[in-house]
Write a structure and sequence with these properties.
Helix content is 65%, strand content 4%. It is built from 23 helices and 6 strands. It comes from Adlercreutzia wanghongyangiae.
């Protein structure tokens, strides 16, 4: 017979177990991730040997080439082809004098180790501020975009237009996602449509919510679709063209292979996005970002319950037409008129004033004061996004000040020297994957690395356009996730966790590297010289 206590409770009875609360890991925010990356970059400047290549650039005022040695000495050289040939820079002099190449170009064989140039931990705040100042053109563009969104939103045009659109697309919801993705792929391969695409999130996020999709579909159809297009750039002047020029070849060489890769990459991406979007639409709990669904919907979902919101009068139609036209004009300006962020920002301000006049005046207008407040509210809502872009540039500033970027480039070039063609391009692809984190700018990495790596192609007997393709595939596979690139600003805008995005994007990153390695290996054998 079991022993009992005075209260009659068995001595061997188990005490009720206290439930331990599981502490759920919360992935750091975009700001925290960039701060950690900045600290790591600073630490690298203490341990990675410093060094630099001599740099060459054209001075339009003097009509001379300026060569800056690793120790900072500047000398002027005649701007002719003979000078470039003597330096081993296999680039046409026209690329410098015409303004096609505006950044400093690394001169092969000039790397010199330098005294360590560590960046102090105390300089981290300065590097962040420097990055913000350096990215001010992009940031002003984003703030002006926010202002335009604010004034359009206060008119109620978004709610009315969304209500009308969702009725017309019922049963064919993915067609809109497909159309947006194809447009972004086309924009990416033609002109590197990336930072400008930030403008599309406020338009499409409410629409995709209404169609039953999640934040992943929004980012996938805009950011990742544009990145796929840029990965397999055909005539993108900021990637394929400038890299070809810096490699001493023309962008038309290898364009057929890049176009083939674009078609394959686009098909794989669209099938993957369709699979995911269908899963989410059928079962919202499948969403990789389901835990943040309510917060995301609260941020972007529009209130169309009232009769006033559903009413889609002529005033709201005109306002929406102006809003859509803003992005059509922006794309035309970038592609045909040489616009950059200041011009695009000025366009948004101009159209904001027009919307203020149309939506704020008259019998049913919201009033001048409310319109002005709406512009400020809209701009302020995108301040965190603008700051993220600046902070990301601060990381690159640390690496440049520490003089370790060229050290990594030199070590990489030594690593692949003497390899066979297929092994050479595979290793080069992985090298560009790593360098994409260090130098996230496509044009920046092109002018820094192509003069160094392109001559190595000659030693292994492969065409230089294969090096250009390896640079594109490798760098952009990294930029799908690199905190130093545009992805952090995108995730900040939609308040999405990096862990959720990585879960979706890693298959496409692996596909890009594996498909790129196979394709380039075949090309190195078929087109061997």
């Amino acid at each position: 017979m079991a022993e009992t206590t005075m209260e009659g409770v068995p001595l061997n009875a188990e005490e009720p177990k206290k439930e331990k609360k599981k502490r759920k890991f919360s992935f750091p925010s975009a700001f925290t991730i960039l701060f950690i990356v900045t600290i790591i970059a600073v630490l690298c400047t203490w341990f990675v040997p410093a060094g630099q290549y001599s740099k060459l650039m054209y001075d339009a005022d003097s009509g001379k080439l300026e060569m800056t040695s690793p120790t900072g000495e500047v000398s002027e050289l005649d701007a002719n082809q003979e000078t470039l040939d003597e330096l081993g820079v296999k680039i046409s002099i026209d690329q410098f004098t015409s303004g096609a190449i505006t950044q400093s170009v690394s001169i092969p064989g000039t790397y010199e180790g330098l005294d360590q140039h560590p960046v102090s931990i105390a300089d981290i705040p300065y590097s962040m501020v420097w990055g913000v100042i350096d990215g001010i053109d992009v940031m002003v563009f984003i703030l002006c975009l926010g202002g335009l969104i604010g004034v359009v939103k206060v008119t109620g045009a978004f709610e009315s237009g969304l209500s009308a659109l969702t009725k017309k697309t019922k049963g064919r919801e993915f067609l809109l996602v497909f159309g947006v993705s194809v447009f972004m792929i086309f924009g990416g391969t033609m002109c590197g449509l990336e930072e400008e695409a930030v403008a599309f999130y406020p338009i499409l996020a409410p629409i995709f919510i209404a169609l039953g999709y999640d934040s992943i579909v929004v980012v996938g159809s805009i950011f990742l679709a544009g990145s796929i297009g840029t990965t397999f750039s055909t005539v993108n002047p900021f990637s394929a063209v400038i890299a070809s020029n810096a490699a001493g070849t023309v962008f038309t060489e290898g364009i057929a292979v890049r176009a083939f890769a674009l078609v394959v990459g686009a098909i794989v991406f669209l099938l993957y996005l369709h699979w995911y979007a269908k899963k989410v639409q059928n079962n919202p709990e499948f969403s990789y970002s389901y835990e943040d669904r309510e917060k995301f919907n609260a941020q972007w979902e529009l209130n169309d319950n009232t009769a006033a919101a559903r009413e889609f009068g002529i005033r709201k139609k005109i306002v929406l037409c102006i809003f859509v036209a803003a992005f059509v004009i922006m794309i035309i300006g970038v592609m045909n008129l040489g616009w950059w962020f200041p011009q695009m920002a000025a366009e948004f301000v101009t159209l904001s004033i027009l919307v203020m006049f149309i939506g704020g005046t008259g019998k049913d207008g919201v009033g001048e004061s409310k319109m002005v407040d709406a512009f400020g509210t809209g701009a302020s809502s995108l301040v965190p996004v603008a700051l993220i872009i600046g902070l990301a540039r601060g990381v690159n500033h640390v690496l440049t000040e520490g003089m370790i970027s060229d050290t990594m480039l030199n070590a990489a070039s030594n690593l692949v020297t003497g390899m066979s063609g297929p092994l050479f391009v595979i290793c080069l692809l992985l090298i560009f994957f790593v360098l994409g984190f260090v130098v996230p700018s496509s044009s920046g990495l092109a002018v820094l690395s192509m003069p160094i790596f392109a001559p190595l192609a000659d030693t292994v007997g492969i065409p230089r356009w294969i090096i250009v393709a390896a640079y594109q595939f490798g760098q952009y596979a990294m930029l799908y996730i690199a905190p130093t690139g545009l992805v952090m600003a995108t995730l900040q805008m939609l308040d999405m966790k990096m862990s959720h995005w990585f879960k979706f994007v890693w298959p496409m990153m692996v596909f890009t590297l594996v498909f790129g390695a196979i394709l380039l290996s075949i090309c190195s054998v078929v087109f061997a010289v």
